[in-house]
Amino acid sequence: xxxxxxxxxxxxxxxxxxxxxLYRGITAFPQFDxxxxxxxxxxxxxxxxxxxxxxxxxxxGGVMIAVDYHAxxxxxxxxxxxxxxxxxxHDFWTLEDPQRRQTHTWIFCNNIAVMGGLFMIVSNSL
Length: 126
Fold this sequence. Notes:
The chain has about 130 residues and is mainly alpha-helical. The protein has one domain. It is built from 5 helices and no strands. It has helices spanning about 10-30, 30-40, 45-65, 70-90, 100-125. Helix 1 runs antiparallel to helix 3, helix 3 runs antiparallel to helix 4 and helix 4 packs antiparallel against helix 5. The radius of gyration is 15 Å and the shape is globular. The two termini are about 15 Å apart.
């Protein structure tokens, strides 16, 4: 725990990845009702609980990575979360507006790169 066997670069990488999820989890929570209505419009069952689970995954997973407490498990949860976020929120292939399509394509691709970092955390933590 607490990065005792990691180099400074690995620790920095962990903290940078953790920051993304902690920041987004904290800043997105005040817009809970907006996110909930999007989930409900898409017909996601138990939308409130799915959304709460997503926020919890971002916060708990981010903390686990930041403090290196079972970082592999936190990263694995965040990989699943990011896959789901890509398909529920950044489904650029369904958008007709070219600007929105482009924006969500970029976010989707960035999320793929973030998952690469999460996979590295998993592989380095086992």
